[in-house]
Amino acid sequence: MAKLTKEDVSERLEAALAILGDEICEDGQSNQKINWARSLLRRAIQDPVVQVNKVANDIVVR
Is there a domain that residue 12 lies in? Predict the structure, then answer.
């Protein structure tokens, strides 16, 4: 298993954010969840080394 660099992590988080896009969901609860995921990804991109585990755990919990 290869280890990811900080740059690799940032690139993957940015790609995940791009996949989510900016669309609004028809269902209010789904829209809230996707906005929450976007917010977590943006925070993780700012400091991926510190945030990546928290983001992954939070997304799995939801």
Answer: no
pTM: 0.68
Domains held by the chain: number? 1
CA distance linking residue 24 with residue 9, whole number of Å: 26
23 domain-assigned: no
pLDDT at 54: 64
Domain assignment of residue 47, given as a range: 29-62
Lookup result for tokens 């992954």: 56
- Reported as a pLDDT band with limits 50, 70 and 90, residue 22 is very high
- What does the alpha-carbon distance between residue 21 and residue 34 come to, in Å, rounded to a whole number? 10
Cα separations in angstroms, 38 against 1, 3, 5, 56, 60: 28, 25, 22, 12, 14
